[in-house]
C-alpha cells in the first residue's frame, strides 16, 4: 500500500524555477558540448586553421623556414611570431590527425575551465542556474563551434583572458600578467585589456605581461631558421585589411565598395563611442570592480574587433565576461537591444537564402558588424543615460542619499545599492573590493 511517509523528502519538496531550469539544461548543455567536440570538430570543415600551424611546427623542429606563406591566396596562413612558434612546436611530436584531436581537446578543456573561472569571477558556482546556461550558450555559439571546427588556438586565448581578469580582480598581479603574457606570445588580440591594470594602478602586471613574450622571443629567435622573415614578410600582412572573411568596418566597407572617407568616418565615430564609454566607466573602477572590469573589457575588445584591420566572428568568444555581467544588478546588458546585438555576433544561424539571395547574403555578411556596432551604441547609451540621470538627481537629492553604486567625488552613487558585507552596516564607508571576478 502507498504511504506518503515512505516518499523521500526531495520528491515531495517542490523545486524552484532555478532548480527546474538547471535540471533541464544540464543534460542539454553537456550533450551539445559533446556534439560540438566529437562530431563537428572531429569532422572538420573546408577551413582548416590547424594545417598551417602543424606544418610550421614540423618545419621549426627540422630547422627549415617557417614564414613562406603566399598571401595572395585565401587559404589560412601561418601568422604566429617566433615566440608563438616555440609554444606550439610540441604539437609536431604527434602524427597530424592525432595531433589535431589533441589540439581540439586542449581547446575544449581550456574553454570549460575558462567558463568555470568566469562563474567564480561573478561569485557563482556550478550549482547556480547560470552554469548550465553558460555552458549551453557557449557551445551553441558560432564562436566556440567554429573555434573547434576550424581547430585554431582561440580557446586557449579565452582561458588566458579569463585567467587574467580573474587574477587581476584578486590582486595577483604577477600571475595575471603571466596569463595574458602567454597569449601575447602567440597573438596580441588581448592587448587592449592592458588598459585595465593601467587604470587600476596594478603596475606589476606589466612586468610579466610584457616580459614573458620578450623572453620567449629571445629563446625562439636563434632556434628559428627565418625569424626576420616574420618582420619583413608576415608583419606587413598583419597590418593590412582584407575584404573577405572580415567583419571589421574596413573589411565590410571595402567589400561593399564604400567610399574610403565614409569608412574612415565610421571608424572615427565608433572610436569616439569606445572612448566615451571607457571614460564613463572609469568612475566605477573602485566602487564596483567586477562591473568595471567585465564591462570595460567588453567595450575595449569589441572596439578593437570593429575598428582594427581584421575582425572575425569567432573573436566574439572573448566578450564572455561582458555577456555574463547580465547577472549584475547594474549591468549594461539588461535590455533587449544588447541581446539583439549579441545574436548578431554569436548566433550560428546562416542567413544565406535561396529565395532572396542578395538580401540573404547582405544579412549573413553584415550580422557580425551590425552586432558589434549595436553593442557599442547600446553600452554608451546606457552609461550616458545613467550619468545624465545622476546629474539631475544631484540637484535635488542631498549628499549621501543616492541610490547606491560606485561613490563619486560628489558623494553620489550610480546603480543599484549593494548589499552590506558581513559586519558592515549600510552607512559604513565602502572599501576597495579585492574579491569579485580561417583567421589570425
From TrEMBL:
UniProt family annotation: Belongs to the glycosyltransferase 87 family.
Species in which this protein is naturally found: Rhodococcus tibetensis
Transmembrane segments: 20-39, 101-118, 148-168, 174-196, 203-224, 261-282, 289-307, 365-384
UniProt membrane topology term: Multi-pass membrane protein
Name of protein: DUF2029 domain-containing protein
Disordered as annotated region, ranges: 400-440
Keywords, sorted A to Z: Cell membrane, Membrane, Transferase, Transmembrane, Transmembrane helix
Pfam family, one: GT87
Bias (Low complexity) ranges: 409-423
Residue stretches of biased makeup (Polar residues): 431-440
Record's subcellular location: Cell membrane
Primary location: membrane
Amino acid at each position: 500500500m502507498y504511504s506518503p511517509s515512505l516518499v523521500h523528502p526531495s520528491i515531495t519538496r517542490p523545486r524552484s524555477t532555478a532548480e527546474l531550469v538547471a535540471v533541464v539544461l544540464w543534460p542539454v548543455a553537456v550533450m551539445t558540448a559533446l556534439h560540438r567536440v566529437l562530431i563537428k570538430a572531429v569532422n572538420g570543415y573546408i577551413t582548416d586553421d590547424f594545417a598551417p600551424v602543424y606544418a610550421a611546427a614540423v618545419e621549426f623542429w627540422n630547422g627549415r623556414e617557417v614564414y613562406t606563406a603566399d598571401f595572395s591566396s585565401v587559404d589560412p596562413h601561418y601568422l604566429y611570431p617566433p615566440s608563438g612558434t616555440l609554444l606550439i612546436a610540441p604539437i609536431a611530436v604527434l602524427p597530424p590527425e592525432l595531433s589535431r584531436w589533441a589540439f581540439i581537446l586542449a581547446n575544449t578543456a581550456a574553454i570549460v575551465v575558462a567558463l568555470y573561472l568566469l562563474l567564480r569571477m561573478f561569485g557563482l558556482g556550478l550549482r547556480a542556474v547560470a552554469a548550465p546556461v553558460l555552458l549551453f550558450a557557449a557551445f551553441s555559439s558560432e564562436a566556440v563551434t567554429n573555434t573547434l571546427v576550424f581547430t585554431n588556438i582561440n580557446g586557449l586565448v579565452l582561458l588566458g583572458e579569463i585567467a587574467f581578469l580573474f587574477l587581476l580582480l584578486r590582486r595577483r598581479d604577477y600571475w595575471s600578467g603571466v596569463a595574458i603574457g602567454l597569449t601575447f606570445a602567440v597573438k596580441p588580440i588581448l592587448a587592449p585589456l592592458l588598459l585595465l591594470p593601467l587604470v587600476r594602478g596594478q603596475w606589476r602586471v606589466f612586468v610579466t605581461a610584457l616580459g614573458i613574450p620578450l623572453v620567449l622571443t629571445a629563446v625562439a629567435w636563434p632556434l628559428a631558421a627565418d625569424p626576420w622573415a616574420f618582420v619583413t614578410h608576415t608583419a606587413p600582412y598583419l597590418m593590412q585589411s582584407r575584404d573577405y572573411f572580415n567583419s571589421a568596418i574596413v573589411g565590410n566597407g571595402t567589400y561593399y565598395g564604400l567610399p574610403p572617407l565614409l569608412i574612415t568616418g565610421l571608424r572615427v565615430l565608433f572610436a569616439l563611442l569606445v572612448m566615451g564609454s571607457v571614460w564613463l566607466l572609469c568612475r566605477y573602477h573602485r566602487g564596483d570592480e567586477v562591473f568595471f572590469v567585465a564591462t570595460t573589457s567588453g567595450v575595449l575588445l569589441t572596439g578593437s574587433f570593429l575598428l582594427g584591420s581584421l575582425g572575425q566572428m569567432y573573436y566574439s568568444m572573448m566578450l564572455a565576461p561582458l555577456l555574463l555581467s547580465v547577472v549584475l544588478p547594474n549591468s549594461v546588458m539588461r535590455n533587449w537591444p544588447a541581446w539583439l546585438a549579441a545574436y548578431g555576433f554569436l548566433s550560428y544561424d546562416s542567413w544565406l537564402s535561396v529565395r532572396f539571395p542578395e538580401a540573404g547574403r547582405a544579412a549573413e555578411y553584415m550580422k557580425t558588424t551590425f552586432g558589434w556596432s549595436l553593442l557599442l551604441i547600446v553600452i554608451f547609451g546606457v552609461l550616458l543615460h545613467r550619468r545624465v540621470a545622476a546629474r539631475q538627481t544631484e540637484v535635488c537629492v542631498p549628499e549621501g542619499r543616492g541610490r547606491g553604486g560606485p561613490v563619486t567625488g560628489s558623494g553620489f552613487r550610480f546603480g543599484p545599492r549593494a548589499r552590506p558585507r558581513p559586519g558592515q552596516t549600510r552607512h559604513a564607508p565602502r572599501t576597495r573590493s579585492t574579491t569579485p571576478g580561417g583567421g589570425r
